[in-house]
Amino acid sequence: MLRYVLIVILIIPSFYCMVLLLDKSFKPIFLNYAFAQSEDIKKTFGGYLPGYKAKDTTGDVLDPMSQVILLENAPIDPEKYLREFNYGRMSVDSNGTITREFTIIASDHQMKEISPGIYYNLWTFNGTSPGPTIRATEGDIVKIKFINNGSKFHTIHFHGIHQAKMDGVFEGIGPGGTYTYEFIAEPYGVFPYHCHIQPLEEHISHGLYGVYIVDPKSPREPADEMVMVMNGFDTDFDTENNFYAVNSIPYYYMHHPIQIKQDQLIRIYLVNMLEFDPINNFHLHANMYYLYRSGTMPNPDEYTDMVTMSQAERGILEFTYKFPGKYMFHAHKTEFAEKGWMGVFLVTEGDTDQFTDTNIIDQNINSSLSTNEKIQNQNLNQISMNTGVEN
Amino acid sequence: MEEYKKINKDKKRVNTFSFGKKIIFGLIPFIALTGMIIFLLSPTGHHLISSGISLPEITFEKIEFEDDIIVAYIRNTGPEEVTISQADVNDRIHAAAIEPSSILSRLSTAKVIIPFSWNPAEPYEIGITVDDGTRFSKIAEAAAPAPKPNIEKVSLFAIIGIYVGIIPVMIGMLWFPFIRRLKIGTYKFFLSITVGLLVFLGIEALLEANGISTTNLAEVLGGQMLIILITIISFILLSYIANKLINRSETNIKDNKKKKNFDSMKENTNEGEFIHKSTQERDRSSSPYLSTSDNTISSVIPTKDMLLKPLALSLMISVGIGLHNLGEGLAIGSAILLGEIALSTFLIIGFTIHNTTEGLAIVAPLSKGGKLRIRKLMIFGLIAGGPTIIGAWIGGFIYSPIATVIFLSIGAGAIFQVAYSIFTWLSGYSGHKNIFTDKSITLGFIVGMSIMYVTGLLL
Fold first, then answer.
1. Mutation to test the B interface, candidates A10, A23, A32, A341, most B Cβ within 10 Å
2. Rounded Cα distance, B103 and B73, in Å
3. Minimal Cα–Cα distance from B323 to chain A, Å?
4. Where are the alpha helices (H) located in A174-246, listed in sequence order?
5. Which among A170, A370, A374, B426 is most buried, taking Cβ atoms within 10 Å?
């Protein structure tokens, strides 16, 4: 009997050893202590959020939110894209009409690092997603030479008013093909452009979109202008986005705050190109903005800190910061925020730059009165517009 | 003659040369195989055979909740090396660290540490995203702090083990005097109840192991095949050991026969304490040596095999159930650890009732064997119930799914071996080759299985 028990007792440790060989994480407690003091260099992670202590690790840190990591092969330079507007090659004819020529090349086979360590086959216009921001003035002739450098059919479908054959829907451009889209920039406002080949969902979610701005003939007030495209990426193709961002790179503006000046008028051309999720939104901290839906009307629709948009909805946001400091902006769909769609404005004191018009600032700071006035004006304006259309 | 010599010489040469050559000839296939593998791993070979896209695969083996930290143990179970890029809790990206490295070679493991102030008893889904954007996740049903092995926790697990393992088995053993008095038909019925219980326990262990291997073990580790392998090994090995044990005791008894006969009176008074205390005179009749009645158990002419086997059989049952209870303890310990069950009085009661039947299983064969000391019964009870405590400790403090699967499979093999032994033993009684031609055995088996199912519903 004793021998029997002994044999059983011996079998158990031998299986235990087998387990140890198979499973490194299955470590007896006393071994844990033996291995705890490693000579590896310790790195600190976490701790930047209130309530979370910084921790040390001998391994690697995975932290896209606070770690400033230079992406090897980013889909875009968000710093550059933010304030970059392309006016095209300009030519003026005898009548004084301006023609703006652009070239846009589509591609669908570039592996880009869309978030630290995450690679995704991004489809791009001119090598970036979002594509270049195209800007013209109302009445200009816009000519876009489209070259399809991809392996699938692609087009560019511009929002705005134009002829049917310039709509980029039925004239699919095959691999290696070219097409010239030509139309008069109208009306003024902010518009998306995107590929319109089916499956539309695939072509849009892979990154084939950009922003097209038409300025009114009488220019808007000078301001520090920027473009923000709210987007996301479904990296595992389950028709749910894994990453959300403004201007493609999750958390980018968290560790690279957007530098703005106190009392400076800020104008954001905001476009929602998020696929799969029905809505997206933009919330600004410690401030309110004038919202011009689609940017097609002279007066704002709302004075708010929160706008919700479905896909291809867009607007112009105007605001100034009264106090210096760090202010967040993010989707107030917290899921999107916590998957990358958040950023920070760093408001600094000092001279407002060349855009500033003191009158405009005064107008904006006298908030409540001017708001009511503006909305009233807008209502009146809408009525007049409606009658205009009818006539 | 010369020719014959020559042939002999040749033969000799072959024999003398053969040692060195043997090694060489033995090694040639290995060398060829190594060469082939090297070629296949080289860029040229790799290019030739690899086609298609290999998808990454990550398995979560364990999730632990510590003070303001969630720790996930992951394993790269895909075909290629993979880089872990980001971690999330409930599908929301969080800062994390991965040890030892974010690059996981095939089958290697890593520990993902996510600072997160979790709430007890709430479910959390832990996810990681690899470099190609694929996300893998696993849900912990209810967050509970990982038990640290302090005296309080060790004793808590020990108490749980005693309640769930030892006490019920001891209670079940109290059926001993009852079973002793049974007629042969009823006795067979009860013994086959035991078989039913054991078969049920064995299947239960296999299902449990299968559940763990499918949810916590990667396909690449072949969890299900591992269960079958270990169960069969356990069955065969224990059968072998049991036969050795029985053979040895047979020879021992042969040697001691004279001595035993000489001391038989003494033994009856001293070693048969239990019988005297509990059953007194009436029970004398059930002793296989003394009985003449046709209806009692002892009416069957006691062969040598039958006299020797009961004790060995009971011990085997104890060990089998002990191994099973080790698995059960592991399951309880790890369930508490993984936050999958809340430890409630009701659960303990359920286990207690369920396990009482195990005590019955141990004493059933003994009741035929005559002399028995209460100390022996206690030892059997400890062998059967004690491992629950050890299992709870292992499961609670150093949980490993693969260890649990292995232990459960050993337990299943042991249980099946015991069931098989009792069945063969019973067939000696029934005199039939096919045991299910016996009414009481058939009925007992069905009842045994059903009892386990019904008491199992309490869990």
1. A23
2. 14
3. 9
4. 200-205
5. B426
Q: How far apart are CA B353 and CA B148, in angstroms?
A: 29
Q: How far is A52 from chain B (nearest CA, A)?
A: 7
Domain B58-140 classified CATH 2.60.40.10?
Answer: yes
Average pLDDT, chain B: 75
Of A218 and B157, the one with more pLDDT: A218
Are the Cβ atoms of A15 and B241 closer than 8 angstroms?
Answer: no
Q: Is there a domain that residue A185 lies in? A: yes
User: Which residue, A192, A138, A189, A149, is CA-closest to A168?
Assistant: A192
Please report the pLDDT score of residue A85 as a whole number.
95
d(CA A309, CA A274): 10
Report the C-alpha gap between A154 and B173 in whole angstroms.
80
Residue type, B38: I
Q: Residue A92: what are its φ and ψ, rounded to 5°?
A: -115, 130
User: Which has the closest alpha carbon to A312: A215, A210, A181?
Assistant: A210
Given a cut of 70, whether residue A25 has pLDDT beyond it is no
Which residues are within 8 A (CB) of B277 and not within 5 positions of it... i.e. 6 or more apart? B374
Residue in A291, A286, A290, A303 with CA at minimum distance from that of residue A346: A286
| Beta-bridge mates of residue A7 | none
Q: What is the DSSP string of A63-128?
A: -TTT-----TT-S--HHHHHT--B--EEEE-TT--EEEEEEEEEEEEEEEEEETTEEEEEEEETTB
- Residue A63: inside a domain, yes or no? no
Domain count for chain A:
1
**The pLDDT of residue B359:** 82
Q: Which long-range contacts (CB under 8 A, 24 or more apart) does B424-427 make?
A: B425/B306, B425/B309, B425/B313, B425/B365, B426/B188, B426/B191, B426/B192, B426/B195
What is the structure's pLDDT at A18? 61
Question: Does residue A1 lie in a domain region?
Answer: no
Domain spans in chain B, listed from the N-terminal domain onward = 58-140, 151-456
Q: What range defines the domain where residue A249 resides?
A: 78-374
Q: Using an 8 Å Cβ cutoff, are B369 and B308 in contact?
A: no
Q: Kindly state whether B111 is in contact with chain A, defined as any CB-CB distance less than 8 angstroms.
A: yes
* Residue A39 within a domain: no
Task: Note the Cα A1 to chain centre separation in Å.
Answer: 74
In DSSP terms, A82 is beta-bridged to none
CA B173 to chain centre: 22
Residue of A nearest to B384 (CA): A5
Q: How confident is residue A376, by pLDDT bands cut at 50, 70 and 90?
A: very low
Which amino acid, A103? T
Span A268-293, mean pLDDT? 95
Q: In this structure, what CATH number is given to the domain that contains residue A221? A: 2.60.40.420
d(CA B454, nearest CA chain A) in Å: 32
Question: Coil, strand, or helix at residue B84?
Answer: strand
CB burial string B1-33: b at 16+ within 10 A, e below = eeeeeeeeeeeeeeeeeeeeeeeeeeeeeeeee
Q: Does B245 touch chain A (CB under 8 A)?
A: yes
What pLDDT is stored for residue B290 in this prediction? 36
How far is C-alpha B214 from the geometric centre of its chain's CA atoms? 18
Threshold 0.90, pTM exceeds: no
How high is the mean pLDDT in each 10-residue block of chain B (459 residues)?
Answer: 62 63 83 85 73 81 86 88 91 88 88 90 91 90 75 82 86 82 78 82 84 76 84 88 71 55 45 38 37 41 51 78 79 66 60 75 71 78 87 78 81 82 72 69 86 75
CB-based contact A20:A26 (threshold 8 Å): yes
